[in-house]
């Protein structure tokens, strides 16, 4: 019998309890022994909820109970989640979490404690919700050198961009509608500014290269400046705007960024719309592999957490080696990263063409029918070259990177 203690009976925590109860038999068969809920920790009471019988308000009860084998952390936030997770591991319990902030900040330290104690620290649900991506990176893709990770890692922003594309509406209108429907948070900053995707690509990149990539080091651009005009230009180019968390091996260096990008229909992630997430991983042996599914939601995310609980149950007394050292992964300077750029400038093509060619070289002009501006797509140039050229042009309205 494997006993589980869940910290936090919110959306994901209650989903974990539901799955462990509803799928009890199939889980038991696959693990080889029963998995049961022993405690749920929450500050609140839940009168009438069956969980009432196992509800506790004091974490020490779970920590000090030698019969608890696996602790599930679904509280969110850094504190006291970090202290509770650390204490659980030190008490010889495996921990499964959906908390990306915790994993991005304290991943190497918590993995090391788990290794020292011969237990496991697992975090499948911290990136891509229900999509299996952490376990594939750790095991299925383990023989490969990871050359590139490119992910639509945030459902809220993918929904907003999809609605802007399909309805031709402005960002603010779609955001308000998404908030009214409950698809976007009241405070949408973490999603729309790219901070959520930034932590997720930090986790994936750290795992891919075995070193700590601090999310603060990743260039991050959200979608708040994407306008209905950008969407019109995208349609002219038979492209879509998506926000990507991406990282790439360039020689012996690694680049990483979160930014909106234009992709054409040849791109494997072109049809990933609405709240769905998808991650494309390029291995040097396996080639391209793609993971698609629900990046959020109660049961999808909880399913990923329970898959970790089952893995812990199958590996009692065995630490599954996870290569993610505390050594810092130094990113290549942003100025050296190469991209193609779609650039909008004020004025007509006739007025701008000579100067644009002078500073950017050959470009492809895009006319979306606006009298006061036009656009063009550059060749691959470095971010540093782009910045200097845009400054010298002086009338750039906006730019979006072009992933082709
Ligand atoms: N706010 C996140 C999203 C939830 O929209 O994808 C999952 O991290």
Can you characterise this structure?
The protein is an alpha/beta fold and 404 residues long. 37% of the residues lie in helices and 25% in strands. It has 14 helices and 17 strands. Strands 7, 8, 9, 10, 11, 12, 13, 14, 15, 16 and 17 form an eleven-stranded mixed β-sheet that branches. Strand 14 and strand 15 form a beta hairpin. The longest helix is centred in the first third of the chain and has 17 residues, at 100-116. The protein starts with a strand and ends with a strand. The mean pLDDT is 97. Bound molecules: L-homoserine. L-homoserine binds at residues 129, 154-156, 191, 196, 295-296.
Q: What brief labels describe this structure?
A:
elongated; 11-stranded mixed sheet; 6-stranded parallel sheet; single chain; alpha/beta; 404 residues; 17 strands; binds L-homoserine; 37% helix
Brief synopsis:
The chain is of the alpha/beta class and 404 residues long. It is built from 14 helices and 17 strands. The structure holds L-homoserine.
Rg calculated over all Cα atoms: 23 Å
Low-confidence spans: none
Strand content: 25-35%
* Structure class: alpha/beta
Provide the list of bound ligands, each named once. L-homoserine
Share of helical residues = 25-40%
Task: Measure the end-to-end span.
Answer: 52 Å
Q: What form results from the Cα inertia axes?
A: elongated
| Mean pLDDT over the residues | 97
Total beta strands: 17
Major sheet attributes: 11 strands, mixed
Number of contiguous helices:
14
């Amino acid at each position: 019998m494997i006993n589980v203690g869940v910290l936090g009976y919110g959306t994901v925590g209650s989903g974990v309890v539901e799955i462990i109860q509803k799928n009890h038999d199939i889980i038991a068969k696959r693990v080889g022994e029963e998995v049961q809920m022993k405690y749920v920790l929450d500050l609140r009471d839940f009168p009438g909820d069956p969980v009432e019988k196992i509800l506790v308000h004091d974490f020490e009860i779970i920590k000090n109970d030698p019969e608890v084998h696996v602790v599930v952390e679904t509280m969110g936030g850094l504190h006291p989640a970090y202290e509770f997770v650390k204490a659980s591991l030190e008490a010889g319990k495996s921990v499964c979490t959906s908390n990306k902030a915790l994993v991005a900040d304290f991943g190497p330290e918590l993995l090391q404690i788990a290794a020292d104690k011969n237990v496991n620290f697992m975090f499948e649900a911290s990136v891509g919700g229900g999509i299996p991506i952490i376990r594939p990176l750790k095991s299925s893709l383990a023989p490969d050198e990871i050359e590139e990770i490119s992910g639509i890692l945030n459902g809220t922003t993918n929904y907003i961009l999809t609605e802007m594309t399909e309805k031709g509406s402005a960002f603010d209108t779609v955001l308000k509608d998404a908030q009214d429907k409950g698809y976007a948070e009241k405070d949408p900053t973490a999603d729309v500014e790219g901070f959520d995707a930034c932590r997720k690509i930090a986790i994936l990149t750290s795992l891919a290269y075995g070193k700590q990539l601090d999310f603060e080091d990743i260039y991050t651009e959200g979608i708040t400046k994407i306008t209905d005009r950008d969407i019109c230009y995208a349609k002219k180019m038979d492209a879509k705007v998506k926000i990507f968390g991406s990282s790439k091996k360039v020689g012996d260096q690694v680049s990483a960024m979160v930014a909106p990008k234009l992709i054409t229909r040849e791109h494997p992630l072109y049809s990933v719309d609405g709240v769905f997430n998808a991650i494309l991983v390029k291995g040097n042996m396996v080639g391209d592999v793609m993971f698609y599914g629900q990046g959020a939601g109660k049961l999808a995310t909880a399913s990923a957490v329970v898959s970790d609980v089952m893995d812990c149950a199958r590996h009692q007394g065995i630490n599954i080696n996870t290569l993610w050292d505390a050594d810092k992964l130094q990113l290549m300077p942003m100025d050296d990263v190469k991209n193609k750029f779609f650039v909008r400038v004020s004025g007509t093509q006739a007025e701008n063409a000579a100067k644009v060619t002078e500073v950017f070289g050959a470009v492809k002009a895009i006319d979306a029918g606006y009298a006061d501006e036009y656009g063009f797509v550059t060749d691959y140039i470095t971010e540093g070259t782009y910045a200097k050229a845009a400054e010298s042009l002086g009338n750039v309205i906006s730019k979006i990177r072009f992933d082709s």
